[in-house]
Amino acid sequence: MMKSIHIEKDSTFINELENRLEMNEPISSWELFSMAFHAEKTTMTPSFKGLRALEFLPHVDFLNHQISSAEQVIEQMNGRAILADEVGLGKTIEAGLILKEYMIRGLVNKALILVPASLVNQWEKELNEKFYIPAVAYRKNMSWEQGNIIISSMDTAKRSPHRDTILNLDYDFVLVDEAHKLKNHKTKNFAFVRSLKKKYCLLLTATPVQNQLVEIFNLVSILKPGHLGNYDTFLKSYGKDRKNMKQDMYLKQLVQKVMVRNTRKDTGLNQIKRNIETIWAEFSKEEKEVYESLEDISVYLPSFSKITFLREFCSSREACYLSLKKMLAEQPDLEGFQRITEAIEQLPNHKKAEKAVELIKEIGNEKIIIFTEYRATQLYLQWYLQQNGISSVPFRGGFKRGKKDWMRQLFRDHAQVLIATEAGGEGINLQFCNYMINYDLPWNPMRLEQRIGRIHRYGQNKDVHIYNFALKDTVEEHIMKLLYEKINLFEQVIGHLDDILAELAIPDIEHELQEIYSESTTTGEAKVKLNNLSAIIQQTHDTNYEEEQYYGNT
Amino acid sequence: MAIPDLNNFLKSFFTAHHCSLLLDQDGVLTIQLTEEMDRALMNRPFYWHYMKKMGHSGEPMQLTLITNPNKRDDEGEWIHFGSPRLQQIIGYLQQQEKYTKLFQKVNPTVNTALYPWLVTNIKVSYRGKYKRDELFSIGLNLINGTMKSDMMKILDSIPLHTTISDFCYTLSPLVKLKSGYRRIEAVVDQYIENQNHEWASEALEELQTEIELLKYFYTSDNDNEQMEKEIKEINERYQPRITYQVINGGLFYLTSEIV
């Protein structure tokens, strides 16, 4: 046995020690010498088994299935695996944990992380902040050779001249997010990932088999060629029907050796349903007048201001009033605005706020979260709810951790409503609440999903109710009807939206929408453009779906 | 954990580097850095470059480190076993504190001889499907060839100093440093040889299986280059290896009474 083990000894130490003693060079004091020894004892890994990374990440609350998945990938799959958890169970967390463990053990120095363009920054943030992994997003003129942990989009990486540089490098670890894009072995993406020189490799996808069994064959061939036989024999035995997988226990077992899949069912997240309802409100006559005069007058404003004022006014008088005041302070001679701010001051309570109180009373004695985009609205709502005998606490992403925890506790034990301005409340668990009001809709649907994720998550055991507020005959109605409802966002598209937007080269949908409004001279024009955007998104979604149907028939 | 108390560890580290502790309370530590520590930890080479160029002495920063998790929202950095700051400090220790020459501190009334010992702390890493480390601390008396394991533990109870005490003199080694090191290495070799290497057989087995699968996969394919690349990757992943790395070590002059 000893003969087949490569042994590498340390030949430099003793020479260097001899030199130092001869040259009388500075040497360590006992205290520091001994500290270095103890530090090594702390950082070394005394056992083949177990996850050391957990000791190093005391601030992360891992779920049991995430820890066991990471262990399984490292100990049983030897670092090459498909992570195929259902959406929302934390594939990213598992991947980060695995990478961290390999780094702690000194097995990974150089890693390449390939993710959709729209997720590059999110990955960078998560790996750095949650895992203390010094990963950097690839930026122009960066050196692929020098960076150790680089996150890039597949499109950038596979493009010349990056492609050749990358293919020449030896990676200890390669990760591909949204790996179902690799299921077709005839694509460039597939060929590229396959030719990467890599030691460990993780493929992340919520949908490892969408249509045909050969898709899983292709994914496995990247990780462990031959594990499922070769292409021809595989096709012969299993054909193209994915139903065979369920029938063939042997194949199933083979696949389980390279794939980890947790489902909501396993983790107890399954039984919970999402009820989503749109609540329409209508402006009063006075409010409508103000809205219309804003629409008319603000044509002369710099881009984005107009649509911002309109959105704010749909949220609360206060939000709009503050922005108007701020603008007037900078440009006091802007015509007409003085009149509008005066008109706003005269307005009674906002119709949406009245609707909210109505709804809260209807729901009865339940905890409710209200999300709004604006701080002014948050303050106003807090006041207005109080006027109506409803207790509430505020919540902002900017709160310090201690304050966040305190607010959460107040909400749980004393108040009925939590009014939040940001979904980004990382790590705040609100599973004890299952009602949510989206007081104004974010223009980025992914943020909506994050909001919902605050309550529809591990640990929730009641059905979740989501109410989306929108005002008739306003920009809110356009977004609700022409975008959200038209693309069937809540039912089918949301899981794919990232892919679709990347494919359409829309890095930031919120920005896209603002542009539509600022570049349109009339509301009608904006509506037409919005309609077109929805149509393209829907069409891309449908074509992708069809392609999946056809794939493999050639 | 080999560092049982992080707060104490940090205090010793900074005190040993001549930094003063401005605050030490309830797991919150504020340190006035020295220039050396500022250069080592604060990552601002341009500041120091600029200061020196202008003929200024420069002003080292203060650093607040929080080891008490309940205080982690206070002003300062929360430091724990995974935090980049601790890794930086540990990295600095490992890089700086590799070599030493120390003398036992004694108060003799008569002339006392000190025996030279070569002490090495060696990390052995076993890498098959996975990896595990073992740390040996071995001392060798360079006069009579006595060898001790767990040498660091023995040294812990002996007062040591960088200069020799009065009335003491050192004996010259009969065994040269290099051959002494070879003897230590031979002991480690022997230890490894006598072990059960199931981890290696498992890894080799896996290596064989995957290569066979791979060959089967490529029977109808002519892509030899791709296959070679993949064989290399499999080897890279499973080929069992053992590496020796001396973490630190040095020459220790000790009285004859050590156990």
From TrEMBL, chain B:
Q: Which Pfam families match?
A: YqhG
The family database entries (InterPro entries) matched by this protein are listed as: YqhG (IPR024562)
At the top level, the lineage of the source is Bacteria
- What protein name is recorded for this chain? YqhG family protein
Task: Please report the organism this UniProt entry assigns to the protein.
Answer: Virgibacillus salarius
> What lineage does UniProt assign to this protein's organism?
Bacteria, Bacillati, Bacillota, Bacilli, Bacillales
